[in-house]
Amino acid sequence: QVQLVESGGGLVQAGGSLRLSCAASGRTFGSDDMGWFRQAPGKERDFVAAIGWSGGNTYYADSVKGRFTISRDNARNTVYLHMNSLKPEDTAVYYCAANVYGSSWYDIGGMDYWGKGTLVTVSS
After folding, report:
1. Helix intervals (H) in the chain
2. What pLDDT is stored for residue 77 in this prediction?
3. Closest-CA residue to 79 (of 19, 2, 18)
4. Which among 70, 91, 110, 116 is least surrounded, fewest beta carbons within 10 Å?
5. Are the beta carbons of 49 and 35 closer than 8 angstroms?
6. Beta strands in the chain (DSSP E)
7. Is 89 helix (H, G, I), strand (E, B) or coil?
8. Could you tell me the CA-to-CA distances from 13 to 19, 74, 80, 120 in Å, in that order?
9. What does the alpha-carbon distance between residue 114 and residue 120 come to, in Å, rounded to a whole number?
């Protein structure tokens, strides 16, 4: 059974940092692009960041550029999201996803595997 399991969420003050992890099992994602999305209460799920299979290419939503960094460790089948300078508007459930067939990162329905999410709450 393929699983993506996110961890590392929690409560942090504005300006603080968190590192999210996404551990994969049941399948090797070393050749797949991986991404992070987030969904704030009452809002749609939005793209946050993505990384190519080798780790050489990264992409970010404008709202997180310069503050968030995505990375991966293919030997551990794990993807990370390092979040710095957090703002209250970053509060959301953060989801990890695998984009096996190269869909647009803005095509939420095109992602092939999803985790169940981890909650990040940023207090002001």
Report:
1. none
2. 93
3. 19
4. 116
5. yes
6. 3-7, 10-13, 18-25, 33-39, 45-51, 58-60, 68-73, 78-83, 92-99, 113-114, 118-123
7. helix
8. 14, 31, 20, 11
9. 17
CA distances, 26 to each of 8, 58, 68, 116 (Å): 21, 25, 28, 15
Q: What pLDDT is attached to residue 82?
A: 98
Q: Give 88's DSSP letter.
A: G
Q: Could you give the CA distance from residue 123 to residue 121 in angstroms, rounded to a whole number?
A: 6
Confidence of residue 5 (pLDDT cuts 50, 70, 90): very high
Beta bridge partners of 26: none
Query: What's residue 15's pLDDT?
Result: 98
